[in-house]
Specification:
heterodimer; A: about 240 residues; alpha/beta; Rossmann fold; 6-stranded mixed sheet; 9 strands; about 35% helix; globular; B: about 250 residues; mainly alpha; about 75% helix; about 0% strand
């Protein structure tokens, strides 16, 4: 069953030429008759599906549209044309700390991040100590996050995002967190989620991780799908070109 | 409601974070309006206290003004900033972004209610008592929260798109503050200025608040209608424009 169905998806940004981010500049440009609006095509004619329990990697150079595509899948950015349909709960594994606040304690951050993902506060509260333990930071859960090392924050974020079974997991470059020990542990948990039916969309520049984890891969170039297919073939082509 | 838990957490976070690293913590919420009022009272009581109508007291008059103006000013700015400062989350997880602006306004409302405790003390110290109309301050609070979250939503889009609008809004808010009878009685102004101040929506909110709390003003039916109209209009303005421009703005975060 397809959990993610993307059909003829287009995304166009309307941007001002010489965009400056200031009203003053905009007036100046407008008076000189230079305030032109151009359409910037970020994604064009993207179609693919992701099945239950399938891992799909998105490859491409910086600016190819990978993160934009993830934002559309997360439902944050509306598509200009075409559609993106995601069935079920989405757990975005966000880059280190977005959604985390340095002045709040580890426990408060876990609760906040979980509720943000749409989980029930009551059931999360019962899970907080288990999440802290799994991340290896139980002794620190009472302290503000600013006292954590970056590895500890990353482990806590991973532990929180993957604490509940989810239908779709969106992963943006966060697989290589923590030491070797934690890496093994996090891979095992990912596999467990996948085996229980979670679909994973994964953005990564780490080709060995993609080869190892992904079933299929999509190669994006300048907003177009350049190649789509079995992960190791696409990776080979990507690395060659 | 689906997002009630999130709103509760956001309001709590907003209230505690501001003073998290200070010694007396949330106690500042009580102290802040008292200290500001005290300073202004020392400065202005000689000039303006005698100009109030008989029966009204300058100290609670002033403090009520500061309390409501803080709610409006801080609430509006925090509500407007909330979207940009939570951009990291809003571009990753789908949550209606309006929730952040509304929570900031609600945190302002809670602060407003907390600030009424020291105001009550000041009312009694200056020899007044709470008016029987006291419960009506709830309506003023809710109306102000609507106005603040609406204007905050509208400003949040501007703030993300154009950096310099922050400064423009700050200046406009300052002008609006001086056009609100916070520390002066409206009677000290000439009739043209009185007219302008009269049309300032915040004046209506303030008149009703002062009257309801301890009978320190005389609002008219116009004040009530004007307050309600502005609350509804402000909220609608924000919600409508946010909905319209957000899809194009989120890409800039």
């Amino acid at each position: 069953m397809a959990v993610i169905e993307v059909t003829n998806l287009n995304l166009t940004y309307r941007v001002l030429m010489n965009r400056t981010g200031s009203l003053k500049e905009l007036f100046k440009e407008a008076i000189k008759g230079r305030a032109r609006v151009i359409d910037y095509v970020a994604l064009e004619d993207i179609s693919f599906t992701v099945e239950k329990g399938e891992v799909v990697a998105i490859l491409g150079r910086n600016g190819a549209g990978k993160s934009t595509l993830l934002k559309i899948l997360a439902g944050v950015l509306p598509a200009t044309k075409g559609s993106s349909k995601v069935t079920g709960t989405i757990a975005p594994m966000i880059e280190l700390g977005a959604g985390f606040h340095p002045e709040m304690t580890g426990a408060e951050n876990v609760l906040f991040y979980s509720v943000l993902m749409g989980r029930d506060a009551k059931s999360v509260k019962a899970r907080i100590s288990a999440i802290g333990e799994w991340a290896g930071v139980s002794d620190h859960m009472r302290f503000p996050l600013r006292t954590y090392s970056s590895g500890m924050v990353a482990r806590l974020a991973f532990a929180t995002a993957t604490d509940e079974q989810t239908d779709v997991l969106l992963v943006d470059e966060v697989l290589s967190v923590g030491d070797a020990d934690f890496k093994g542990k996090s891979r095992a948990r990912m596999n467990q989620l996948i085996n229980s039916g979670a679909a994973v969309v994964l953005v990564s520049h780490d080709m060995s991780a993609v080869r190892e984890l992904a079933h299929r891969a999509i190669w994006l170039e300048n907003g177009h799908i350049k190649m789509i297919g079995v992960a190791k073939d696409v990776v080979a082509a990507y690395e060659a070109g | 409601m689906k997002y009630a838990q999130l709103i509760r957490l956001l309001v709590a976070r907003e209230l505690t974070l501001r003073y998290k690293r200070s010694v007396i913590g949330i106690g500042w919420t009580l102290l802040n309006p008292m200290l500001t009022s005290f300073v202004l009272w020392v400065v202005f009581s000689f000039v303006f206290a005698s100009r109030l109508p008989s029966g009204q007291q300058f100290a609670p008059y002033l403090m009520a003004g500061i309390l409501l103006n803080t709610f409006f000013n801080q609430g509006l700015m925090q509500s407007a900033e909330s979207i940009a400062s939570n951009g990291g989350v809003l571009t990753k997880i789908y949550v209606p972004p309006q929730i952040f602006a509304i929570s900031a306004a609600l945190a302002g409302l809670v602060n407003f209610f907390i600030g009424m405790l020291p105001l009550t003390v000041v009312v009694f110290i200056s020899g007044q008592t709470l008016a029987w109309t006291f419960p009506l301050v709830l309506i003023v609070g809710i109306c102000m929260a609507l106005l603040v979250s609406g204007l905050g939503l509208a400003c949040s889009i501007l703030f993300i798109r154009f950096d310099d609008t922050r400064n423009i809004v700050a200046v406009l808010l300052m002008i609006l503050m001086y056009l609100t009878p916070i520390f002066y009685p409206i009677s000290v102004m000439n009739s043209t200025m009185q007219n302008i101040i009269h049309w300032n929506p915040i004046t209506s909110y303030l008149d009703i608040f002062r009257w309801a709390f301890s009978n320190n003003a005389t609002p008219t039916l116009f004040s009530w209608i004007y307050m309600c109209v502005w609350s509804a209009f402000g909220f609608w303005l924000g919600v409508y424009n946010f909905k319209k421009y957000w899809p194009r703005t989120v890409a800039m975060l």
